[in-house]
Design brief:
Distance between the termini: 53 Å
Radius of gyration: 19 Å
Shape: globular
Strand content: under 5%
């Protein structure tokens, strides 16, 4: 039985995410509608797949003519980070039931992970509250995607504007990071990797290559710095 106090705590923690998902979920729904998905298909996709980056990548890559195998591989690789989120939250699930822990791990995303990890560090937080944050966020995302499908069918919104929503998210995330040498190196080499891929015609793999190159260079720099300090 969910207590009112836990539901209130979860809502207060989740509502900033929910508002943000409205702003990016509607453009995502518009893009999904542009490749022929109807509102029911988008609803099922948002409930079962629930990956903002992945759901943006699918229509964007489809519109650029990327092969199906490339879309599947790219989206799968991008979403491997979810396993890291779940693994880092596993210690907090000790004492919770397996079913509760499973649904909590299966519904965590970038934004809800950040909220949950901060709340667990503060103390007096629980897995059921964290799961409700995930579900409230997912509900907002799903509803916004479905609304986007209807908006796209009623209004003639240029697809480049809608597709830029995901780019704008990454730009916002970039400028909210701490200005450290590893972060700067990761950003520079990620941009360089994407640019080179697009320059040589590998648009489908550009995001993956850029992400891997940026992270790898930042990790190498961090290890080299630690070695010099030692």
């Amino acid at each position: 039985m969910v207590s009112r106090s836990h539901l209130r705590d979860a809502f207060l923690a989740a509502y900033p995410i929910m508002l943000g998902y409205v702003a990016i979920g509607i453009p995502c729904g518009i893009l999904c509608g542009s490749i022929g998905l109807d509102w029911l298909q988008v609803l099922i996709l948002s409930v079962l797949f629930y990956s903002g980056a992945g759901q943006f990548m699918i229509p964007n890559m489809w519109l650029t003519g990327a092969p199906l195998a490339s879309i599947i591989a790219s989206v799968s690789l991008v979403n491997t980070r979810q396993m890291l989120y779940s693994a880092s939250l596993a210690p907090e699930c000790q004492g919770a039931s397996r079913l509760l822990s499973f649904f909590f791990a299966a519904t965590v995303t970038d934004e809800s992970y950040g909220v949950s990890i901060a709340k667990f560090k503060e103390g007096e937080w629980s897995v059921d509250r964290a799961l409700m944050v995930n579900l409230l966020s997912q509900s907002s995302w799903t509803i916004s995607n479905v609304i986007g499908v209807f908006v796209g069918s009623l209004l003639d919104i240029p697809l480049p504007i809608a597709s830029f929503a995901m780019t704008s998210i990454f730009i916002c995330l970039l400028f909210t990071q701490k200005l450290t040498a590893p972060n700067v190196i990761a950003a520079v080499f990620a941009i360089l990797g994407v640019y080179i891929c697009k320059l040589i015609g590998l648009s489908g793999a550009a995001i993956i290559v850029g992400a891997i190159l940026g992270v790898a260079c930042a990790m190498l720099y961090a290890r080299a710095s630690e070695g010099r300090r030692a």
